[in-house]
Write a structure and sequence with these properties.
- By secondary structure, the chain is mainly alpha-helical.
Length: 104
């Protein structure tokens, strides 16, 4: 290499380094924006995962509610109540109820 080419290469490198130091605040600003962007993406992904988990939990609780309500409706039918109280010696009425009249 000749001396003039070495000078041009050195000059180019100095200009490049100078340009980097001159624009360092802008580069730092871009790096900060990148960090904020990545942080925001992680936060939104976390929120979406939590929403999906809560949706599944609500779905499971709703299913349990419907199941319990169905069991309650079935167990409160007259035939089921008769089966439950049969062990205690109770049964359905065979005579109509007696009306008590007080004298007025």
């Amino acid at each position: 290499m000749t001396s003039s080419q070495d000078k041009k290469t050195t000059f180019f490198r100095l200009k490049w380094v100078e340009w980097i130091f001159v624009n360092l605040p802008f580069v730092c600003y871009l790096a900060l924006l990148g960090v904020i962007y990545i942080s925001n993406a992680h936060a939104s992904e976390k929120a979406l995962r939590r929403i999906e988990t809560l949706k599944q939990e609500v779905k499971d609780i709703k299913w349990r509610y419907v199941n319990l309500r169905q069991e309650l409706m079935y167990s409160s039918t007259q035939s089921q109540i008769e089966k439950k109280v049969e062990d205690e010696g109770l049964g359905p009425l065979t005579k109509p109820p007696v009306k008590i009249v007080t004298g007025r």
